[in-house]
Sequence to fold (397 residues):
Amino acid sequence: MGACKARGGNGPFAAEVSRYVPQIEQATGMRFKQPPRVETRSRDQIRQFLVRLLADERAKRDLEGQGAMYRRLGLIPDSLDLGKFFVDLYTEQIAGFYDPKTKVLYIPSDAKGQVVDATVSHELVHALQDQYIDLDSVLHVDGDQDRTTAAQSVFEGQATLVSMQLLGATLIPWDKRREMIRDMQGEAMPRFASAPMVVQETMLFPYLSGGEFMGRFYERNPRTSPVGRMPSSTEQIIHAEAYGETRDEPVRITLPALAPGASAVYQNNVGEFETRLFLFAHTKDASAAVRAAAGWDGDRYMIVRTPRGDGMVWVTVWDNSLEAAEFSSALEQALGKRYGGLRPGATAAGASAFTTRDRALSVWGGEIGGRPAVVYTDVPAGVSTAVLDPMKVTLAQ
Fold:
């Protein structure tokens, strides 16, 4: 007991740290290289930390770019300030956090009882992970949000699974756990309850789908870690067969220069999981959305600026032509639901064209570099949808 206490240190919550450190090592098969540091912070200090974190230039750019993508796909209201909303949301949700920059586990000074146990046992796993892989660099891969979400799913999934094991939580199916979280909304989590569906689901994904992924991983590899073989996409988190001996790696897409009059503002990827969310958000058909997104093999979107306002071009690559056709059909159905029964026309490039009161949309299907692809374009009305030439897109495995 004395050795464990020494490893827990003499700071805040030393008894809890001392108790959980050896249990976490036993559960993960990894040993702490040095004692974890724990400090307390007031709720106001935690909020100020979040404000500074989201005010970082790269974080701000990504939030603005991601927000623009969500707006163009109809996933958040045009008026929502995503940065401010996340500060309020995280302040409500956060019960403690491990900061990979300072290497410190911070716990709210007003935390008590089961909250302390749940927070310490979960966040200590992150402190341990950070001693074997640089969390800060892995979770901030520039321009590859889908890979970042996959990495986050490993880290949060492992911490969730280990913490549940240590606390003796009843193991129930992950989809049922999602329903339980929804039942706990309302007065307990008003900000989360009011969040757009895409925000709720992307927040839950690393914990729930990540926990399911890590459960499968531990069944095959007890007391080991995927740190040396990190998944590279949400596809690999969702589908067991995509992360096996032979991994289904996503195609890397490079977008070309735009047509004159349009300029690139931001680019990143959506990934299979958020593609599924987009389709479901408009069709309300979960099974169809899952099927239509399942053939995903890579994507890249670009927020574009035109003289009449901003738009978006989204290039997706699919496993085969049938999967591409299924997505294209689901995409057009989603657009019809969103905008109210659109009737397609045709463009000179052979794409399906749609016009609303203030938007010009097109869906192009064909081959790029020998791979089935679908290109969706959304620009202000009066602007040509031919802002990007699909034949100039390049692919790499």
Notes: Confidence is low (pLDDT under 50) at residues 1-6. Residues 49 and 78 are 27 Å apart (CA to CA). The first strand starts at residue 37 and ends at 41. The chain has 15 helices and twelve strands.
